[in-house]
Amino acid sequence: MFRHRGKARRLVHNLKLASLLSFVAGVVNVAGFFSVQVLTTNVTGHFAYFADGVVKQDFENALYFLLYILSYLSGAFVSSTLVEWTQKINPRYANAIPVFTEILLLTGVALLAPGTILHFAPLVACTLLFAMGLQNAMVTRISDAVVRTTHLTGLFTDLGIELSQLFFWRKPEHRKKLKASVKLRFAIISFFFLGCVAGGIGFTWLHIRILFLAVICLLIGIIYSDIRYRLLLLKKNFPGGRAPSRNRRPVS
Q1: What is the pLDDT of residues 77-93, one digit of tens each?
Q2: The domain containing residue 171 runs over which residues?
Q3: At 53, which CATH number?
Q4: Where are the transmembrane segments (predicted)?
Q5: Spatial CA neighbour of 134 closest among 92, 110, 100, 93
């Protein structure tokens, strides 16, 4: 899910990645909005609020929204930098580092007291936006820009186009590829929606601690990916379940 890149990546890998991280994004989106009244998974609307503050000469409010935009950008920048840096040292953990960074950020926010959140609301919003920028950049790199999990505007546009093309594309190979893309987009939208619902219901009971649900999902994803990698490596090294002979050098 987190390891396959390029030609080795299949639809099933993207579906798993999209389902998991879209659900996480949905939870974070609702938790951020309910706790600090800021949308924390995209920056499209923040540009409008920033412009509104500038026009009305409410520069303090405009500055906040500029910080939100830059926080998301910084998250994407740091995510890509971490991946590039880790690939030079140990490629196996290249995608795990951004995931664990996101886990730490979400855990830190989830542990805050309600009074602290209200007092430092802009900082909390910036932290969540940074985490979502980090996640979206990571998933974009892993999937070669096929999967994006933190905002839906472009997805609905692409989905509308592809649903229309289903009426006109007749070649079996084209329709197969188109149906796979439609299936992926439905998965992202559906799990983002489920994350929002779960986050909203959970927030009424747990408040900001509902972010632990997102943390658990990320941990499950990274553990599952590592177990799958080890099993595939074991199968590759010991085909048929047989141990290598003494004269055979194990694969590192």
Answers
A1: 999 999 888 888 877 77
A2: 6-230
A3: 1.20.1250
A4: 20-42, 62-83, 95-113, 119-139, 184-204, 210-227
A5: 100
